């Protein structure tokens, strides 16, 4: 089976390396163009491109696949390359480009997508973060047969994963990346055996996971401490969560916190207590104990270190 792989970040790299480890024939990898990164802003390859180069697999990096779009020559070249490769299947994982109809129909078995939620719960750009933010007890991976809709295709394999109380978006991402690779291999085994079943998504329970914005990073302390604690974990590492503390000119980033069921009559944002255990801040309901913070221009610090250079006033 000839599989073209299309993906960009580490989440996709894990799946690509799993395919290669199982001996699948991957004659071509597609990924986003190199982007500036680091202090020097030098062009850097995506994690998927680096993995492909390490395996001596040709890499295609079009800016777009739309034949009538902004880069028609690149799209036409990509189409011809795919026709020459004659793939049986395309596997797509966090690729970052919209696949037009011609792309979806070109492989013999179409395109399988590794989606980081239990569809149809979280369709869209940020399913990992929104699942934590919403307080979902579980999430998972759906291997989906792609169609022209936004994550609306038939479900092929679903694998569930419990969301722990200490899961951040970063750690849940890593767990789901491993689960996604396993679910993909399961789907491919069913495809080989002729036992793969496509199940339409139910019309009930659809949610849209909107793309994260920097504006969301500011913590609204009129909300409950429980909601804010989930938000902090959901936005770690991007875009992070910020709040203002007395005596500091700039907001601080909050990387870890604990929700306290504490009764108080203080205004949201008022510092209730400072100790070696944390900085307790009043919320609309309960209090938020700050455990790991970061001043502008500094590194992340546990609260025991942070309070040494800060005094509430």
From TrEMBL:
GO molecular function: methionyl-tRNA formyltransferase activity
Every Formyl transferase C-terminal domain range: 211-309
Any Gene Ontology CC annotation: cytosol
Cited InterPro entries: Fmt, Formyl_trans_C, Formyl_trans_C_sf, Formyl_transf_N, Formyl_transf_N_sf, Formyl_transferase-like_C_sf, GART_AS, Met-tRNA-FMT_C
Catalytically driven reaction(s): L-methionyl-tRNA(fMet) + (6R)-10-formyltetrahydrofolate = N-formyl-L-methionyl-tRNA(fMet) + (6S)-5,6,7,8-tetrahydrofolate + H(+)
Top enzyme class: transferase
Keyword Protein biosynthesis applies: yes
Binding residues for (6S)-5,6,7,8-tetrahydrofolate: 117-120
This enzyme's EC code(s): 2.1.2.9
Presence of the UniProt keyword Zinc-finger in the record: no
Keywords: Protein biosynthesis, Transferase
Domain Formyl transferase N-terminal: 1-188
Family the UniProt entry places it in: Belongs to the Fmt family.
HAMAP family membership: Formyl_trans
Function: Attaches a formyl group to the free amino group of methionyl-tRNA(fMet). The formyl group appears to play a dual role in the initiator identity of N-formylmethionyl-tRNA by promoting its recognition by IF2 and preventing the misappropriation of this tRNA by the elongation apparatus.
Name by which UniProt lists this protein: Methionyl-tRNA formyltransferase
Organism: Alcaligenes pakistanensis
